[in-house]
Amino acid sequence: MKTQTYSLNLGPQHPSTHGVFRIILELDGETVVKATPVPGYLHRGIEKLAEARTYTQVIPYTDRMDYLAGMLMNWGYVQAVEKLMGIEVPERAEYIRVIVGELSRIASHMIATGAYGGDIGALTAFTYTFRDREYCIDLLEMVSGSRMTFSYFRVGGVADDLPGEFYPAARKFLADLPGMCDEYDGLITGNEIFQARTKHVGVITPEMGINYSLSGPTLRGSGVNYDLRKVRPYSVYDRLNFEVPLGKNGDCFDRFRIRIEEMRQCGKIIQQALDQIPEGSIQAKVPKVIKPPVGDAYAEVESSKGVYGCYLVSDGSPKPYRVHFRRPSFINLGYLAKLCEGWKIADVIAILGSIDIVLGEVDC
After folding, report:
1. Is the Cβ–Cβ distance between 166 and 139 less than 8 Å?
2. Could you give the CA distance from residue 177 to residue 171 in angstroms, rounded to a whole number?
3. Which of 17, 183, 193, 282 could crosslink 11 through cysteines, CB 3.0-4.6 Å?
């Protein structure tokens, strides 16, 4: 007997949509026949606003994109301006950028790990990761004075040097980090109910991941070894030893597990950067009024969500003529409609959470 499908709105106010995101599900019973993602509820026109701001004034807007990893958002933008102007960043500033960038990645992954546990029904997980993220945010506050929207990077370097009290506090955090990750593994990763909800669910094949331009843990969960810090090293990443965690099955479980493994690797990167950081300037010589020559430039960094890029066009004035951001959360959502087909409503929650989106970056 033929059944009639019906539509169900998931979001835009649902907690498991991770922000104001809506998916229109066409269902046959509880089985998804078609999924239509509807972004745009948080759109603030950052790219257009940038055209009326000086190059330095654009930096705080980038914080508001992926507000869970603000340092990395700063980095991609200022790197594009530096490329446009041919500015060489001092060594010490590059090491500081790596340190705060990786701390920002850890903070983002902690939210992703805890929130995903909550999506699946393990609400306790969020209290553990949010507790540990506070130590990470404390370190970033020491450096920037802010706990979320840092605006710390500058064209040619960073705003301030690392304070003296940062070093012992950072080393203490790094010593505790492996134990924190072990705790997440014991509480969430090894839980048989969690595994039943995530293993072999929402499988992304390596071919489809590449074809849809996915990146970050979403792509590496499918076993594709692509991390900008390794394949096209920027800053001082070529001087640091770390591994790129990869998945085997490309399912929700692999995408979740990789973020915990990446936190462990971030700790190793920060430890090496603290050991190697040289003395010297934290800011290159940059004109007070930044006026890049006429031209364009593109730069990208490996954010916590994937490849984050910034394309700049200069007309020679103190304000950018055009700014466009390649937002990994937005790109990664491109495969969501196809990925949800054939799964149950509860699986849609697991699939969306495994991609780890942040709506400020999706809608820009």
Report:
1. yes
2. 10
3. 17
Q: Read off the pLDDT of each residue in 202-216 and give the average, rounded to a whole number.
A: 96
39 phi, psi to nearest 5 deg = -85, -175
CB 38 within 8 A of CB 22: yes
Distance CA 24, CA 87 (A): 47
Question: Can you tell me the distance from the alpha carbon of 240 to that of 141, in angstroms, rounded to the nearest whole number?
Answer: 25
Kindly report the length of the chain. Answer: 364
Distances (CA, A) of 187 to 117, 179, 180, 190, 259: 10, 12, 11, 7, 15
> How far is Cα 346 from Cα 203, in angstroms, rounded to an integer?
15
What is the per-residue pLDDT for 214?
A: 97
Q: Which residues contact 105 (CB under 8 A, 6 or more apart)?
A: 69, 72, 262, 263, 266, 303, 304
Would the pLDDT of 16 be above 90? no
Taken in order of first residue, the domains within the chain and their CATH numbers are 39-326 (1.10.645.10)
Structure tokens belonging to residue 210: 């590449």
What angle separates helix 166-184 from helix 91-120, to the nearest 10 degrees? 30
End-to-end, the C-alpha distance of the chain in Å comes to: 46
Q: Give the tokens for residue 172.
A: 């203490």
Give 235-291 pLDDT, tens digit per residue: 999 999 999 999 999 999 999 999 999 999 999 999 999 999 999 999 999 999 999
Q: Residue 362 and residue 352: Cα distance in Å, rounded?
A: 13
Q: What is the residue-wise DSSP string for 167-205?
A: HHHHHHHHHHHHHHHHHHIIIIIT-HHHHHHHTTSS---
pTM of the model: 0.95
- Contact in structure between 249 and 209 (CB atoms under 8 Å): no
3-state helix, strand, coil in the chain (%, to 5): 50, 15, 35
Peptide bond into 318 cis (omega under 30): no
DSSP 249-263: S-SHHHHHHHHHHHH
Going by C-beta distance under 8 Å and a sequence separation of 6 or more, which residues neighbour residue 168?
none
Taking a C-beta distance cutoff of 8 angstroms, is the pair 273, 99 a contact? Answer: yes
Neighbours of 48 (CB within 10 A): 11
